[in-house]
Task: structure prediction
Amino acid sequence: MSKEIHKDFREILEKYSDKEITFDTRVEDLDIDSLDVLEIIFKLEERWDISISLSTDKLETVGELNEILIDALEFRLTP
Result:
């Protein structure tokens, strides 16, 4: 499942930016605005049927967004 998550995560991000994307990539370096970040979050929520609550102004790197996604998925799977 982890590979599928990372694949989907990358595919969603690549729809918004043509920059090289790694977990260390700063969100501001992707040349996307805060609305794009919200759309990315909505797509992640929709794809994985989860709820992500975060302040986009505190989001600095792609890796942080990935960790938030993983945490939300783990929370959903916790009985």
Notes: The chain has a mean pLDDT of 88. The helical segments are 2-14, 34-48, 62-77. The two ends are 18 Å apart (CA to CA). The chain has three helices and no strands.
